[in-house]
Amino acid sequence: MRHILLLGGTTEASALATALATRGEHAVLSYAGRTDHPRAQAIPTRVGGFGGIEGLAEYLTREGVTHLVDATHPFAARISANAIAAAELAGVPLLALTRPAWEAGPGDRWIRVADTAEAVVALGTEAARVFLALGRQTIGDFGHATQHFYLLRFVDPAAPPALPHHHLVVDRGPFTLAGELALLREHRVQVVVAKNAGGSGARAKLDAARALGLPVVMIDRPAIPDRPQASSVAQVLDWLDHRVVRGV
Question: What are the chain's domains?
Fold first, then answer.
């Protein structure tokens, strides 16, 4: 019997979990634990890290995992790198379920940067009203650029960040164009900062920025070692059915 470990936290991971449950697969979805109240899933879940590469490799061996699917966020570079190394160490085949990156189109005013440090610099020294659409993990990088007003949006309530001028919205996507337009207008946003996460659930803020003629400071994805990849749930299911694994 196959035993699938799905590293999740994305819309794609939830869709794959539903498909695996429908097929009656023996599978577990693992959350990193960055969200206090993760979505309920159609398969059993676990929350928390594994203890690095060695810990994940030990889990794969101990639990008899036959297939590892990495459907984590495109910016979860450390988790993905650990998954590659652990899968090799444990002799378990790995496939990444990834979403295509966003591409700038006509009317977009993107300023592409490599990381949050460059994003801070790109905002400039003059005070601006910024929609910081990054999640709470990287908010601290903007702590020394206190001249700006920051509109923040988190999935869960959180302790007030160390930003003297900010407004926090607690909400969970997917978001609509109408809703994003209303949000940007209400808070008189002048510039949007976003990670190039791809996908449809968070795309609306970029469409709203384009409609309002606002610049977007777009943070490029981090580098991840080469690995086999799929771009759809159907491709993952096909891989599961045709990947030859000893003992399966």
Answer: 3-99+223-242 (3.40.50.720), 109-219 (3.40.50)
